[in-house]
Fold these 2 entries.
Entry 1:
Amino acid sequence: MPPVNAAMRCANFEERRDRAMALFAEKGFGQVSMRELAAHVGLTAGSLYHHFPSKQDLLYDLIEELYEELQATLDLGRRAMARGGSALSCLIAAHWQLHAERPLQFRLAERDFCCLSEAQQAHLMLLRRRYETGVLHLIAPRASLKGEALAATAHVLATLLNQLPGLLQARRLPEGEGLGLMESLLLGGIERTLR
């Protein structure tokens, strides 16, 4: 039998992660046993434990990956600004695309975050706050609010960027119309809140 190359192993692992994510999204994280998860992804329980010590670690990995992707959208916004473009338009388009590619990860991050350990939640909250701060600095760099009001504004803006694409895509809005509506909603909120 020929040896399995690293690219094939990586592809198989990614496919299994996607199947695990789909099962968590369909049934709910708390309703899936490790044995059921292993059978669903085509592994023995022992093999699954080789990759992840617990299903909680797998969920954490999926949500952490999403936050890394969200952080990468900020780099796109910075590059758009450096070219003289709109950071907001770039962020909206990047979030729309990310939601189209990873809707299940967004669902898990919102619904099953509470299933993680306190340490895992604390680390993800740090990633979330860093992302929220980055969003605010990009799209409202001269915000006049201070303290908790500023932090709350950053949270709301990031939440809108993360949830509007899913809501609008579920309504089957064409991409151009959805992007335009997102921009109008976010601009309206920014203008009123950050004057």
Note: The domain at 1-51 is CATH 1.10.10.60 (Arc Repressor Mutant, subunit A).
Entry 2:
Amino acid sequence: MPTTEYLNGEDVTIEATFRKYPDWATSIVDHGAFLNQNSRYRNLLGVKNYSTVAWDLQNDGYATAPNYATSLINAIQDYDLQEWDQEAFTGNTGSTTTTTGNHRSGTYTFIQNSNIQTEPSLSAPIIGVYYPGDVVNYTGQIKAEGYTWL
């Protein structure tokens, strides 16, 4: 099938082979086996930080797009998929959220060190740190710079 790859600084359409699966679960199992059995991706095994995994995947050559890691991280954060990691790693969903209109509030339990900043920006001054196990009650969320800020 035709697919777009990024080669020598340009988007190029190539013909590539793709696998076909009878169902979603078989696809997921095969993808996990592919990453586990391919020595190029050994550095991913046991890593629990999705951002680190995304950057390692890009650096390992998993995708040719120069913005692959950023796109993957943004998708994870836009859809709160990191909460699945927390549940898988700890059995704890990590947060409870209530939604009223567009306003989300709830509690969040941190699973890794997270800086406390004066505003939702990576360049904002750091004024403290939340540590694994710390719980915060929040009254809103803001999506900025590819992150969800409480």
Note: The chain has two domains: 2-78, 82-149.
